[in-house]
Amino acid sequence: MAIALCALVPAQAQRYRFEILQYPGAPITTATDINNHGHVVGIVQGLGKNMGFVKEGPDFRSIDVPGAGPLNGSIATGINDAGVIVGTFTTEGSDFRSHGFILSDQTITSFDVPASSTTQLGGINNVGQIAGRYFPAPGLVIARGFVKEGESYAFFGFPDAQGPAGTSPYDVNDVGQIVGEVLTSTGFEGFLFQSNTFSIIKRPNGGSVELSAINNAGQLTGSFRDFNGGHGFVTVNGRFYQIDVPGVTAIAFGTQALGINDLGQVVGNVFLSGSPSVLGFVATPCSGPESDCITLNEIDRPPSPPVIHCPPDLIIDCAPEAAVPVSFSVTATSETGPAPTVVCSPPSGSSFPVGATTVSCTATDSRGSQVKCEFRVVRSALKFTGFLPPLGGSDETGGSFADPLRTVRLGGTIPIKFVATCGGGSVSDGISFLEVTRYSSEGAPGRRVRAKARGSQRDVFEFRNGQWQLNLDTRATGMGPGKWRLEATLPDGSQHSAWIAVRVAMKVDPTLPLIKGRVVNEAGQPVPGALVVLSGAAQLHTSSDNRLNLRLATLPSEAITP
């Protein structure tokens, strides 16, 4: 049975602090196990003879089993909370084979599995159970696993295990769960053995692992390889997290994780390109913001995109300028690697107009993953209470195409006046101007033109007597008969509008002759209130008896409003 461990709870960032271990003067140091007191055992090489070691606090102590040969020597592979250490030593010469040993209270006891040619130990738990492997006969036979408790042995082997490596148990926890490695027909696989049942453990993507240790919480640790080299791993809540020792230049063999205690501390080694060539390490979980803690990547899960932090909408007070520079801060974080690059449009420090401007920001991490956020810069407009009389309104109260606010005679003028304030004070600086647009029908604007003041070519408001003023000259502006929308732009760029009608004005001259007649349709029926367009200046109306009264008229010099 193969098991790809699945997440049991939502993923959380796993942070670890790393401590490098080097046996004094040794070019090769490997940490193989750690107990709940933080005591570490391992292997030291390159000092003339392979030896085991135990590290308690800052102090290293070598373990050299009597009878161990100079070539393979002794290795320490497990330690429990009572300080009992187990490992393997090799005799050489005519009796070249491996034996197990137990170091307790400074006393070393060696043993061999009965009727075995080779005995190699993995780990020991707090119950005193020892897990390891043995070869039942000389020669290239298939190794099997065992658990030793006192003087009793329990033997087991993975079905169809291939030789000679066979079944290799590396650790056992206090509830009897055993982990290790087995050679199958498809290669080496990590296994979990419990209740007389084997389970092959794989990474979430189905990749193989070497299982080295298991603690009493069921956390696993071990190693795997990918195209980037070798890596350690630790499981937390069923998720795999990759371990790569930071701050060193590793070669392809990379990092190996070999032991774990109930505190989640992981030990192992890292292969280097120089000298020393192998160093041990202790990785300790840390939950705070300590700068020496690093975040582990979750294995076989696409790295999370960066997290971007946009501010809430920025509310900017009014100002008389058309554009005001605004600075803001947008940050981003990534679960690994350097801080992502953040680009905003428009960028911080840009000048913003009145109203709401959306700022779009994109964070890009070292892997090219992107995430976006938006916020608004909302700049308050100058306070405007409406056009002063004679217009007397603006915007919602400024009339409409169907119902203009005022009527102005063709060629006449009308004063456009307003007051703008900011923060309780009158705004007198800046430039304000007026634009006019003729509409042929509702929603059908024509060309917008800049309004001109009466008696000059000036096309901006003047600030006089506490008011912004411009005497709109319809003739100089080129305004013909029709409906016109006036739009004033204030110094800050905010705009306000009102509607007027420009009409040809006529006045009845009673001295001229009166022409009477009827207005009828094609069927000869009278049309009350009919509109008649003549090619001259005239005033028309129909009487109550549907008779048409027409009197030629002259144009007056003053404006007429209805």
Protein model, in words:
- This protein has 562 residues and is an all-beta fold.
- The protein has four domains: 2-8 and 20-296, TolB, C-terminal domain (Neuraminidase); 307-379; 383-503, Immunoglobulins (Immunoglobulin-like, Sandwich); 507-554, no CATH class.
- It has one helix and 49 strands.
- The chain has a five-stranded mixed sheet, with no helix packed on it.
- β40 (433-441) and β41 (444-450) form a beta hairpin.
- The protein starts with a strand and ends in an 8-residue tail after the last strand.
- Residues 1-10 and 529-562 have low confidence and may be disordered.
Give the SSE layout.
Blueprint: E1 2-4, E2 14-21, E3 28-34, E4 40-45, E5 51-56, E6 59-63, E7 74-79, E8 85-91, E9 97-104, E10 107-111, E11 118-124, E12 130-135, E13 144-149, E14 152-156, E15 167-172, E16 178-184, E17 187-194, E18 197-202, E19 210-214, E20 220-226, E21 229-236, E22 239-243, E23 250-260, E24 266-272, E25 278-285, E26 293-296, E27 307-309, E28 314-316, E29 324-325, E30 331-333, E31 341-345, E32 351-352, E33 355-364, E34 370-379, E35 383-384, E36 406-409, E37 413-418, E38 420-422, E39 425-426, E40 433-441, E41 444-450, E42 462-464, E43 467-473, H1 474-477, E44 482-489, E45 495-503, E46 507-508, E47 514-518, E48 538-542, E49 547-554
Parallel strand pairs: 1-18, 28-34, 36-45
Antiparallel strand pairs: 2-25, 2-26, 3-4, 4-5, 5-6, 7-8, 8-9, 9-10, 11-12, 12-13, 13-14, 15-16, 16-17, 17-18, 19-20, 20-21, 21-22, 23-24, 24-25, 27-30, 29-32, 31-33, 33-34, 35-38, 37-43, 38-39, 40-41, 40-44, 42-43, 44-45, 46-49, 47-49, 48-49
